[in-house]
Amino acid sequence: QNGLKQIGNATYVETAVSGEAQVGEAGSEGYGNILSGSLERSNVDITEELVNLITAQRNFQASAKAIETTTTLTTTIINIR
Questions:
Q1: Distance CA 12, CA 57 (A)
Q2: Residues 24-66 pLDDT 10s
Q3: How far apart (Å, rounded) are the C-alpha atoms in residues 73 and 56?
Q4: Pairing relationship of beta strands 5-6 and 12-13 according to DSSP bridges
Q5: Residue 53, pLDDT score
Q6: Are 18 and 2 in contact, with CB atoms under 8 Å apart?
Q7: Cα–Cα distance for residue pair 5/23, rounded to 1 Å
């Protein structure tokens, strides 16, 4: 085990066991190379993100309806006076 903690399908964070993250330029000072066209796994769960999008859309619609209702009530009250 390398000591990294997996927090997603292809996302890891450092731990006390792995030590501090090292940042450098690919291909220099012993760092690996980046190969274009290589396959990788996405760290985004498309189903979860679509559910979040639909939830946000419904929340927006509910807020818009609440504002519309408030405007209608305010207009009605002003016209009663």
A1: 31
A2: 888 888 888 877 777 766 778 899 999 999 999 999 999 999 9
A3: 26
A4: antiparallel
A5: 98
A6: yes
A7: 18
pLDDT band at 67 (very low <50, low <70, confident <90, very high): very high
Sign of CA dihedral 40, 43, 48, 51: negative
CA angle 24, 29, 31 (to 5 degrees): 60
Q: Which SS3 state, helix, strand or coil, does residue 52 take? A: helix
46-70 burial: b if 16+ Cβ within 10 Å, else e:
eeeeeeeeeeeeeeeeeeeeeeeee
Q: What is the pTM of this model?
A: 0.47
Token output for 53: 């999008």
Residue found under tokens 């066991």: 17
